[in-house]
Amino acid sequence: MKSRWYYLTLLVWIVSCGRGVEPEVETAPPDIDFPEFIADSAYSFIQRQVDFGPRVPNTAPHRETKDWLVARFEQYGLTVTEQQFEARAYDGTNLNLTNIIASWNPQASKRILLAAHWDTRPMADKDTQRIDEPIDGANDGASGVGVLLEIARVITSDANQPSVGIDFILFDGEDYGEPEHTNNRNQSQIWWALGSQHWSKTPHEVGYTAYYGILLDMVGGKNARFYREGYSMQYAKNIVQKVWNNAHNLGHGDFFQMRNAGEIIDDHIFVNEIAKIPMIDIIDFSPDYGFGRFHHTHDDSMDIIDKRTLKAVGETVLYTIYQEN
How, if at all, do strands 279-283 and 226-228 pair? Predict the structure, then answer.
């Protein structure tokens, strides 16, 4: 006896072919046993980061947040590596940075890489006031970290644990790029995404590789929409399709739009091009208006964090991981 999912899939195929369009969404029931993603918990992890203050490199909140993140991963039983390094910023400042790598099931040969950045912007260069002051970075930085911490928490506490290895990497120095619209842009190199550039050239393990990677950047904002980012489609189109199909199957199609967006130079580009690991970027960037109004402003606070967005992203990534069992 065929299920209702068979007939729904058949109907989508007939309608799509009748219009001369290849269907993009595979309609299949989420029949994989995977743990519940608790949005309230992810929200609390974001709040905790914001409470430290702006996580700008070379500051006390940056150091305190690092210690808390390491302790949190260790509390969940993950193997944690602190990759400490120095990098020169666009203005000549010497930055003391740390990539945090937390590994689940380190013996597994098949590995999935999940990443976000944990630092914050040292200036509010898109704002109209307090431009020279650092931002809270509740969405731009803390949201991706909060989702990953919740994923780490649930996979280590669930009776049904994934058999694949998972490496959580929190990149540092992602947001220390040049101010927007500066007249003196130093184009000798890319001055942001410093942590991913360093790790991609010198990974925490010699010869490290992963089956694929997922980067989370600005994944907690109200009314967020995630489009298929250009470099992700170029380097890892099949992973984009898998993740976006999973989101639709879980009922999160309003968040994950079946539409392409432009290329974003984010942490994933260096993982793709230097480390040679196919990585996609789940990022709130619209092909129509770009980043949201709160991007690189003081509006990037807890006021814009939406638990529904966190749920959509976290549940989709969890479901994707458990498909690899």
Answer: unpaired
